[in-house]
Amino acid sequence: TWIVTHPHLDHAGALLEIIPTKEIKIKRIIHVKLDDEWVKLNEDISLKFFEHYNEVINHSEIPLIDAKVGETFLLGKGVMMKILGAKNDTITKNAINNSSMVLKITGQSKSILFLGDLGPEGGNAILNGPNVLELQADFVQMAHHGQNGVNKKFYETVNAQYALWPTPVWLWDNNHDNKGVNT
Q1: How far is Cα 94 from Cα 62, in angstroms, rounded to an integer?
Q2: Secondary structure of the chain as H, E, C letters
Q3: Weakest-pLDDT range from 124-133, 143-152, 153-162, 163-172
Q4: How far is residue 35's CA from residue 28's CA, in Å, rounded to a whole number?
Q5: Contacts of 90 (CB under 8 A, 6+ apart)
Q6: Are 62 and 27 in contact (CB under 8 A)?
Q7: 8-45 b/e with 16+ CB inside 10 Å = b?
Q8: What is the mean pLDDT of residues 118-132?
Q9: pLDDT above 90 (res 6)
Q10: Mean pLDDT across the stretch 69-78?
Q11: Which of 59-63, 85-89, 147-151, 168-172 is predicted with the least confidence, judged by mean pLDDT?
């Protein structure tokens, strides 16, 4: 199972390179299907990659699952995934990030919450929604690479013991495009 939280280059680019090679057998792709016109209207800067993403996955022979909030998927023996957040047409600021699929994977003894690049607006929508009580997890992936993601209240609600911070070196070093510290 290949899980795509949202169709931005840094979250789906590798998949688009892997699919044509057929070197890795992918039995299904779970993602959130976004509407072309909605992307064009709300995040035109991402339209070219978004169209390429759709072209590749729609012409592959891999089954596509358009995840909906509340759905559960068996990932392996004793490992379940539940969708707690998905496409949010009402949030147009930082549109694709705020429509990141939010998923919780639970095993026999631990759970992890993946937030993709969810922004504060998307995080607040989930905090005010029906799945707020299911957010608690042992581990949490920091939203939007640990910057400009969900707010402190969201993380307090998750109440994780550990946070995973998947970040590029420039962010870790606080040195964007080699422009120096604090850039």
Answers
A1: 29
A2: CEECCCCCHHHHHHHHHHHHHCCCCCCCEEECCCCHHHHHHHCHHHHHHHHHHHHHHHHCCCCEEECCCCCEEEEECCEEEEEEECCCCCCCCCHHHHCCCEEEEECCCCEEEECCCCCHHHHHHHHCCCCHHHCCCCEEECHHHHCCCCCHHHHHHHCCCEEECCCCHHHHCCCHHHCCCCC
A3: 163-172
A4: 20
A5: 125
A6: yes
A7: beebbeebbeebeeeeeebeebbbbebeeeebeebbee
A8: 96
A9: yes
A10: 96
A11: 168-172
Q: How far apart are the C-alpha atoms of 139 and 29, rounded to whole Å?
A: 23
Specify the pTM.
0.92
Using alpha carbons, select from 30, 56, 34 the residue that is nearest to residue 43.
34
Decide if pLDDT at 175 tops 80. no
Structural contact between residues 113 and 85, judged by C-beta atoms closer than 8 angstroms:
no
- Quickly tell me which residue has 């095993």 as its tokens: 107
